[in-house]
UniProtKB/TrEMBL annotation:
Keywords for this protein: ATP-binding, Cell membrane, Membrane, Nucleotide-binding, Repeat, Sugar transport, Translocase, Transport
Gene3D superfamilies referenced in this protein's UniProt entry, alphabetically: P-loop containing nucleotide triphosphate hydrolases
Family matches, as PROSITE patterns: ABC_TRANSPORTER_2
Membrane topology: Peripheral membrane protein
GO CC terms in record: plasma membrane
Species of origin: Propylenella binzhouense
The ABC transporter domain, residue ranges: 8-244, 247-497
Subcellular location: Cell membrane
GO molecular function: ATP binding; ATP hydrolysis activity
CDD domains assigned: ABC_Carb_Monos_I, ABC_Carb_Monos_II
A Pfam match: ABC_tran
Protein name: Sugar ABC transporter ATP-binding protein
């Protein structure tokens, strides 16, 4: 039961950036023990509003009240002192440090004389991780953890700060269904203690599973706030985008797979072993599996970014051996990383992000021809519908979906024939997702071979001509489009011990 007493209220918030009004008269409130979801397309104002609530930005107009008292936050530390913590979509952690050092950063237990009490730090952290049911260890190095695990580290940190309101920004973007279920179970336990959540997500199914109320933002304004039990997905989409989206995924039609563009024959490496697969021209192969199954490690090996210790790769019928990612690039294989920070150079312009991999081709005797570079970048930006003020805009200022389009344009400019997409729509709004789906389908229709890794089972089912499933570093099964269902995928993805617990 949601507590009627309001924990946090924001009233008539206005935020301007120059001549652009990012938020216009937005008011929402969050009750104790409530999950209040915020939805809207990229650019709707969600991140700006959250940054105001957690103190990272100050409003131009309007107020924030906690327990009925109007407060003024000069920074996130003020918000934390009032019990408001934020878990960011891109984990903001110190990669070289341990889980314990990140969870208790700035609050490390110390012995007499000021020396850090390493034993107490480890014990305290392991106790928190155990209480939360998180499969992590205090001494794990954060930089060696997958993105999903880093999200849980952020969550543990927020809990140890005694946060009364936790803002979750796309928390499941890198999580498998099993991880998501674990997160929701944790949220429900904390709700019973009175903890409130603001939950930002593009996954509308999650809203109906975990949220009590949902507010829709569009173009910086609050469209509506609804009880989740009194609405449905179709209505939310209409509020978000102003139209119905009858189908998220393009029609596969009668597209037939062509010749094998890339074949792996019993390859092994870090995180995977004895993997065999074929990627054919004109075909989209979905790759599913739980976090830690070896999907990303396999993808990186296919493009030369990870070392293959056994087996062999065959490209267009000829054995190849890659010593680096540049060798894979030269062979026409492109890898679009799960973490956009590994692909998008945020301080550089849209133009330079698009032309990055083809600068030698655009140069004349080693000198870059700026007019040609601008023309090529503008052409690809237009073809892929990159929404930007122009090709000179910094890539870091674009939405996640438009950053992804810049990376795709980069590899199309190199005429890559094998494209490996690792979580291509992570953190992207529902409208832009459809644009990415259409683009991937168009690339397959042109005869390119596509491998698409996704933790979203509806995405794998909607996009894949056939689906490979990994478990424990191996391919545990292959499903045709006709055979593929969510239960069939999960049966192949879940280790036997987990299956026994799930059915026991």
């Amino acid at each position: 039961m949601v507590d009627d007493r309001r924990l946090v209220s924001v009233s008539a918030i206005v935020k301007r950036f120059g001549s652009n009004t990012a938020l216009n008269d937005v008011s929402i409130d969050v009750a104790r023990g409530e999950v209040h979801a915020i939805v809207g397309e990229n650019g709707a104002g969600k991140s700006t509003l959250m940054n105001i609530i957690n103190g990272a930005l100050q409003p131009d107009e309007g107020t924030i009240a906690v327990d009925g008292k109007v407060l003024h936050f000069s920074g996130p530390s003020d918000a934390l002192a009032s019990g408001i913590a934020m878990v960011h979509q891109e984990p903001k952690l110190a990669a070289p440090l341990t889980v314990a050092e990140n969870v208790y950063m700035g609050r490390l237990p110390r012995k007499a004389g000021g020396v850090v009490d390493a034993g107490a730090l480890r014990r305290n952290t392991d106790q928190v991780l155990s209480d939360l049911g998180l499969p992590l260890k205090a001494n794990d190095v954060v930089g060696q953890l997958p993105i999903a695990a880093r999200q849980f580290v952020q969550f543990a940190k927020a809990v140890t700060l005694d946060a009364r309101l936790i803002i979750l920004d796309e928390p499941t973007a890198s999580l498998t269904p099993v991880d998501t279920a674990q997160l929701f179970a944790l949220m429900r336990r904390l709700k019973e203690r009175g903890t409130a959540f603001i939950y930002i997500s593009h996954h509308l199914d999650e809203i109906f599973e975990i949220a009590d109320r949902v507010s829709v933002l569009k173009d910086g304004s609050l469209v509506t706030t609804l009880d989740v039990g009194e609405t449905d997905k179709a209505e939310l989409i209409r509020y978000m985008v102003g139209r119905d989206l009858a189908a998220h995924f393009p029609d596969h039609g009668e597209r037939a797979a062509g010749e094998v563009a890339l074949r792996a024959e019993g390859i092994s490496g870090r995180g995977f072993r004895n993997v065999s697969l074929e990627l054919r021209r004109g075909e989209i192969v979905g790759l599913a599996g739980l976090i830690g199954a070896g999907r990303t490690e396999l993808a990186r090996a296919l493009c030369g970014a990870e070392r293959i210790t056994g087996g062999r790769l065959v490209r267009d019928g000829k054995p190849v051996k890659f010593g680096s990612a540049s060798d894979g690039t030269a062979a026409g294989i492109a890898y679009l990383a799960e973490d956009r920070r590994d692909s998008v150079l945020r301080p550089l312009s849209v133009m330079h992000n698009i032309t990055l991999a083809a600068r030698n081709d655009l140069a004349h005797y080693g000198i870059m021809r700026s007019a040609k570079e601008r023309a090529v970048a503008a052409d690809y930006a237009q073809r892929l519908k990159v929404r930007a003020t122009g090709i000179d805009q910094l890539a870091g200022q674009l939405s996640g979906g438009n950053q992804q389009k810049c990376v795709i344009a980069r590899w199309l400019l190199r005429d890559s024939e094998v494209l490996i997409f690792d979580e291509p729509t992570r953190g992207i709004d529902i409208g832009t997702k459809r644009e990415i789906y259409q683009l991937i389908h168009a690339l397959a229709a042109e005869g390119r071979a596509i491998l698409m890794i996704s933790s979203e089972l509806p995405e794998v089912l909607g996009m894949g001509d056939r689906i490979l499933v990994m478990e424990g570093g191996r391919i545990s099964g292959e499903l045709s489009r006709a055979q593929a269902t969510e239960p069939a995928i999960m049966e192949l993805a879940v280790p036997q011990t987990k299956k026994e617990r799930m059915h026991g």
